[in-house]
Amino acid sequence: MMTVREILQNKCRDIYSVTPQTPVFEALKIMADRNIGAVLVIEGEKLAGIFSERDYARKLSMEHEFSKNTTVRELMVSDVLCIGPEKTVEDCMMLMTSRHIRHLPVMDNKKLLGIISINDAVKTIIRGHEFEISGLKISYESIMEAWAHSIDLREKQREGHNQRVTAIFIRLAHKMGIKEESLVNMRKGALLHDIGKMCVPDSILLKPGPLTEEEMAVIKQHPFYAYNLLYPIENLRPALDIPYCHHEKWDGSGYPRGLKGEEIPLAARIFAVVDEWDILCSDRPFRNDWSEDKTRKHLKSLAGSHFDPRVVEMFLETKW
Ligand SMILES: [Fe+2]
Q1: 190 and 140 share a domain?
Q2: Which domain-ending residue is among 126, 161, 188?
Q3: Which end of the chain is more exposed for a tag (fewer CB within 10 A), N or C?
């Protein structure tokens, strides 16, 4: 696993900083020109804080009064969390997601070495998985299937899960009248539905015992990670509905956004039923292999709360 020091070596070495007296608009211009989301605030030789676009947006939404003279001091976060250079990218990711922060200054014995953003961490993790994929000698054309397969490989008990749910999903979506051209993108979304789990550390994803509340919160970020990973890839952007929305529930109690009813894209509503079916019926040690009959009753009991009732009805009409 790559260390924070190695990530810093791979990125631009310049540290962009401002002082607490720098006008906010000047700091924003520095960030826009360099395409970065945050700058460090240095006073004397010391790290006095961090100022990010998000801090600015937050104050804007609170109708904070700005003038040309508003300085960074008014908006910066001075209670800054730092990370050491020998920590791993996993530690970095864990710290950022559990504390809801996007930038971490790197300090070595009070010496400032640089700054790591959540994007740097995500890119590093993805590069690691690409390396694993190339080790499987898979052709470039099937890179997407390989990517999906690598998610299964990581969670060993999911063997074949992605392929199975995708196949059933396509049949059900077809039965529900979804047109062929839409199915192309939905298929990609189904295959990559849990791609966001690539950004969840092994220590949480593969933990044998029950998860703490904090660990569960990290797992629940995986649809957001999927969004961040897929949105920049233009031809995967139309496939986002399932990766981003497959944990939403019909009654609004799901995550990440708590969408309700038909606010949830249809593809994600269909996929959610199929995913639950495969999770319960597939041979997982801790599930004790539910019978088809028991799983069907379970799905029926959740129609109208967890699942779209029309989708459950259509699903239960067929023997899969
Ligand atoms: Fe998921």
Answers
A1: yes
A2: 126
A3: N
- 152 located within any domain: yes
Question: How many structural domains are present in the chain?
Answer: 2
pTM of the model: 0.59
- Do 185 and 119 share a structural domain? no
Report the alpha-carbon distance of residue 133 to residue 60 in Å, rounded. 43
Instruction: Write the pLDDT tens digit of every residue in 81-135.
Output: 999 999 988 888 878 877 778 889 999 988 888 898 887 887 777 666 655 555 5
Per the structure, the complete domain to which residue 120 belongs is given by 4-126
Domain membership flag for residue 256: yes
* Other CB atoms within 10 A of residue 93 CB: 23
Phi-psi region of 87 (alpha: psi -120 to 50; beta: other; left: phi over 0): beta
User: Quick check: is 255 in a domain?
Assistant: yes
Do 150 and 60 lie in one domain? The reply is: no
**Separation of 247 CA from ligand 1 center, angstroms?**
6
What distance in angstroms lies between residue 256's CA and the mean position of ligand 1's atoms?
11
Per-residue pLDDT of 261-288, as tens digits, reads: 999 999 999 999 999 999 888 755 555 6
CA–centroid distance, 65 to ligand 1, in Å, is 41
Greatest CA separation found in the chain?
71
Query: d(Cα 226, Cα 43) in Å, to the nearest integer?
Result: 38
Are 176 and 293 found together in one domain?
yes
Active site residues: 197
